Design the sequence.
């Protein structure tokens, strides 16, 4: 891994956490005069619930803003000279901020859109396999939550496959890049953990679907 000044890395981590903690879903819905999004629909601040409460346009805007929360910290960290192998950790900080926002009493969303932003900013090709599984699951089951969970599971696998197939690939490469790989694992685990309620509903067969479902049980990201 590249050497980076500890102070610079700490500031980058804190900045990424703060950026991720901005509750755009709450802000956008309030600005549109729709009240507190946490008291409506599924109660989540993510794009899916925002679209149900304030319309598709608001949902798309929140989706883009949440994705940007993953992109901006990584781009700023790269510009500040923080090593490439450390960038996923800055992304992990952004996801932490999103799901445990101090502005919301250390509560928040599921982190899927912010994680997508991290992938796009660090190495967009890593999104191929997760995106394929997300689209397939959504198309076959109409469950956003299931697609998100499968995408999170595929992310570390995609990173491992890239490491094994690179010019310096092989199992030795996995050991050399273990901290980099572990950062992606942490992001995936955090996203899946935030879907624990969705997993229980999926097992019980009560998880609502993206369309043709009851608004109060809408899965969210």
Sequence:
């Amino acid at each position: 891994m590249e050497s980076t000044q500890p102070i610079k890395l700490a500031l980058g981590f804190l900045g990424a956490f703060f950026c991720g903690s901005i509750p755009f879903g709450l802000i956008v819905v309030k600005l549109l005069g729709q009240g507190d999004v946490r008291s409506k629909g599924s109660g989540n601040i993510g794009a899916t619930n925002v679209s149900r409460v304030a319309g598709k346009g608001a949902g798309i805007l929140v989706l883009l803003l949440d994705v940007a929360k993953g992109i901006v910290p990584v781009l700023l960290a790269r510009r500040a000279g923080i090593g490439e192998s450390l960038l996923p950790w800055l992304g992990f900080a952004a996801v932490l901020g999103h799901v445990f926002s101090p502005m919301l009493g250390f509560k928040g969303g599921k982190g899927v859109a912010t994680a997508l932003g991290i992938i796009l900013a660090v190495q967009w090709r890593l999104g191929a396999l997760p995106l394929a599984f997300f689209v397939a699951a959504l198309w076959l089951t109409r469950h956003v939550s299931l697609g998100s969970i499968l995408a999170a599971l595929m992310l570390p696998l995609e990173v491992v496959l890239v490491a094994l197939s690179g010019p310096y690939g092989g199992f030795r490469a996995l050991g050399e890049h273990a901290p980099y790989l572990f950062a992606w694992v942490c992001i995936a685990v955090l996203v899946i953990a935030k879907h624990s309620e969705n997993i229980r509903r999926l097992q019980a067969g009560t998880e609502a679907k993206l369309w043709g479902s009851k608004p109060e049980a809408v899965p969210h990201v």
